[in-house]
Design brief:
- This protein is α+β, with helices and mostly antiparallel strands.
């Protein structure tokens, strides 16, 4: 029998405790205003999670890059294989011996922990638990003690309540022009300088906390100080999900030279068979960028649903990295599908990107 209800009636902490003490095996699906998260249980313990808004592959991959375990090029190639073979990114990295198994297990464990802890801050949403066998389909198996995670989650949420309204684990910051002026940065603490290095306009606070390996509250307090000094500013949600226009702002000279260099290389690829392997690099980069654009567009669609009470009938055309419109279709039932036709520009093939 399925267990279902709303968070207001029966809080997440109560749900987790119930599943833990009854040693349940199955899937708990929680749907909120901006995201839907599935948590997988085996004998009452948590063995995995999945977020629509935060794809595991991209998030774990970025963490590994920022920690220096793999390069951007390695991630792009691994993501391409992850998509084409329909297997976990972690399994691809292990096959290629790019990451140690224990490093990957720790990263995945922290990823699941932060994803679930974030749910404790939700004020509304619905849930349904369906019992049944759970398959992780991965070489890396994790098992989190639900009771321990519950205590940890409540502790973190309690700490974050100190800065409630100023910052959340989903907040994204970018640097301001003041970071280039010594008069504004000369008296920063070591922690503030360290955290400033992670500010890039794309990485959220939760990921920064994980990568920096510092206490949650220390990170939040330091970031608020940087914000109050005008060294960083929050990236607005609408700004993060706005499609990239074809006409861009003027680039610094170094970036223009880099762009010209890449253009020359791309032209050479067409005529020189000996460098065909470079095509794979550019294709993988396009897959990553398109997947990110789809996620940004999905956020915009969910925001529209929250605002108007239903999904939009149509959306503004957004191009993928191969010049094709990202496909948006309303379903007869409540919902929609959103995807790119991929590098081959044909729908229904193995390289479609969702």
């Amino acid at each position: 029998m399925a267990l279902e209800g709303t968070i207001k009636e029966f809080g997440l902490a109560d749900i987790l405790q119930l599943l833990y003490f009854q040693k349940k095996t199955g899937t708990l699906r929680i749907e909120g205003p901006f995201d839907t998260v599935s948590i997988y249980f085996k004998d009452g313990n948590i063995v995995g999670s999945k977020s629509i808004k935060r794809p595991e592959a991209l998030r774990v991959g970025r963490i590994l890059v920022k920690k220096g375990y793999i390069t951007e090029e390695m991630l792009s190639e691994a993501l391409r294989e992850h998509k084409s073979r329909n297997i976990r990114l972690g399994d691809v990295l292990l096959e290629k011996e790019l990451v140690d198994e224990e490093v990957l297990r720790v990263t995945l464990t922290r990823q699941v922990t932060y994803q679930i802890v974030h749910l404790f801050s939700w004020k509304e949403g619905s849930y349904v638990f369906r019992p049944g066998e759970v398959r992780t389909d991965s070489r890396i198996e994790i098992s989190l003690d639900t009771q321990h995670l519950l205590m940890e989650g409540l502790r973190i949420v309690d700490e974050w309540s100190v800065v409630e309204g100023k910052i959340t684990i989903d907040t994204v910051f970018r640097k301001t022009h003041k970071t280039e002026l010594e008069e504004y940065t000369k008296d920063l603490s070591d922690t503030e300088l360290y955290l400033l290095s992670f500010i890039d306009g794309e990485t959220d606070v939760g990921t920064i906390t994980e990568v920096a390996a510092l206490d949650d509250l220390d990170v939040s307090r330091a970031l608020i100080k940087l914000k109050d000094r005008g060294l960083i500013e929050e990236v607005e949600e609408a700004e993060r999900i706005e499609p990239v226009e074809t006409v861009s702002a003027p680039r610094p000279l170094s970036r223009i030279l880099l762009y010209l260099l890449l253009t020359v290389i791309a032209s050479v690829i067409i005529y020189v068979p000996s460098v065909k392997f470079l095509r794979g690099f550019f294709q993988a980069k396009g897959i990553v960028q398109t997947a990110e654009r789809i996620e940004e567009l999905r956020l915009k669609i969910e925001a529209e649903r929250l605002k108007r009470g239903s999904f939009p009938a149509t959306i503004r055309a957004v191009k993928d990295q191969w010049g094709e419109d990202i496909v948006y279709r309303r379903l007869k039932a409540e919902g929609y599908i959103l995807f790119s036709k991929g590098p081959d520009r044909r729908e229904g093939t193995a390289d479609d990107i969702f």
